[in-house]
């Protein structure tokens, strides 16, 4: 399993590679700009060329979309800004040569599936080789995507939805009620994926422990060994040939030193047998 961290681009985009090398990453995830601002600073062609030149062997290279984006909002202004922001994210990803763009699907008010599908349909026209990954959520509020049936509904509502993929987050799944500490849950989960979106749609794992207990519908990431998921979850993951062959990115809290320790611990736990 290729593993890595969500790293900082503070100061300049290529800071990601400095942190990636320091922490021993194989994969990398970044924000291409502030995740809590609608307007992103433009990326110059020189910056993009330098970024791609320094990338090295990091793969996959993942960009996480802004947290503000909500294509399913009933507020027309929020939806308009979301569509513009997502379209901009796609263009930035293409400039940087990213493999995946991870997106939280959005709000789940009545009619939201249709609205999200409409927005994604427009953006996919310009995505070219970039794969947009819908991320499962913990089920907080009225957000969509807490299970694979909801993710399938969004894919089916999207023109060209076959081009979409999925990123599976362990913390979010635990919050939504999947007890990943039990081996049989992973078997049930894989069957659910087969029966809905298909295994080939899952391209990436977000490997995060959880500060909140099972089924609380809270998105609260914890450092590995300090949350409710723990070692047994990663042992279960490693015992399944499908999940252990997917790349994984950690989005755990703390500074680079703390997250690097998380990465090292994950590698150790994922290599355990029995």
List keywords for this structure.
single chain; 274 residues; alpha/beta; TIM Barrel; 8-stranded parallel barrel; two-stranded antiparallel sheet; 9 helices; 38% helix
The appropriate CATH architecture is: Alpha-Beta Barrel
CATH topology group: TIM Barrel
Order of helices and strands: EHEHEHEHEHEHHEEEHEH
> What quaternary form is this?
single chain
The number of domains? 1
Distance between the termini: 18 Å
Task: Give a brief outline of the structure.
The chain has 274 residues and is an alpha/beta fold. The chain contains nine helices and ten strands.
Describe this structure in words.
The protein is of the alpha/beta class and 274 residues long. It has one domain: TIM Barrel (Alpha-Beta Barrel). Helices cover 38% and strands 14% of the residues. It is built from nine helices and ten strands. The protein has helices spanning 15-23, 45-54, 76-96, 112-124, 148-156, 170-175, 183-195, 230-238, 256-270, and strands at 3-6, 27-30, 61-64, 100-103, 131-135, 165-169, 202-206, 209-210, 221-222, 248-250. Strands 1-2-3-4-5-6-7-10 form an eight-stranded parallel beta barrel. Strands 8-9 form a two-stranded antiparallel ribbon. α3 (76-96) runs parallel beside α4 and α4 packs across α5 (148-156). It is globular. The two termini are 18 Å apart. The mean pLDDT is 95.
């Amino acid at each position: 399993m290729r593993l890595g961290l969500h790293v900082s681009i503070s100061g300049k985009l290529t800071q990601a590679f400095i942190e990636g090398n320091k922490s021993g990453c194989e994969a990398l995830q970044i924000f291409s700009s502030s995740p809590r601002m609608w307007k992103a600073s433009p990326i110059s062609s020189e910056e993009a060329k330098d970024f791609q030149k320094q990338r090295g062997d990091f793969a996959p290279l993942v960009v996480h979309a802004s947290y503000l984006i909500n294509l399913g909002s009933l507020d027309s202004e929020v939806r308009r800004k979301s569509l513009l922001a997502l379209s901009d994210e796609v263009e930035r990803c293409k400039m940087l040569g990213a493999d995946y763009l991870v997106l939280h699907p959005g709000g789940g008010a009545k009619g939201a599936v249709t609205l999200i599908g409409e927005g994604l349909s427009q953006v996919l026209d310009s995505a070219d080789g970039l794969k947009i990954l819908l991320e499962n959520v913990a089920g907080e509020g009225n957000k969509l995507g807490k299970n694979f049936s909801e993710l399938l509904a969004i894919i089916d509502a999207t023109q060209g939805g076959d081009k979409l993929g999925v990123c599976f987050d362990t913390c979010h799944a635990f919050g939504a009620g999947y007890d990943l500490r039990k081996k049989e849950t992973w078997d049930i989960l894989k069957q659910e994926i087969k029966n809905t979106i298909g295994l080939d749609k899952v391209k990436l794992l977000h490997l995060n422990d959880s500060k909140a207990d099972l089924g609380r519908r809270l998105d609260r990431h914890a450092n590995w060994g300090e949350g409710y998921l723990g070692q047994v979850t990663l042992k279960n993951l490693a015992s399944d040939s499908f999940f252990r062959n997917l790349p994984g990115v950690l989005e755990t809290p703390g500074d680079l030193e703390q997250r690097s320790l998380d990465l090292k611990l994950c590698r150790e736990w994922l290599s355990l047998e029995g």
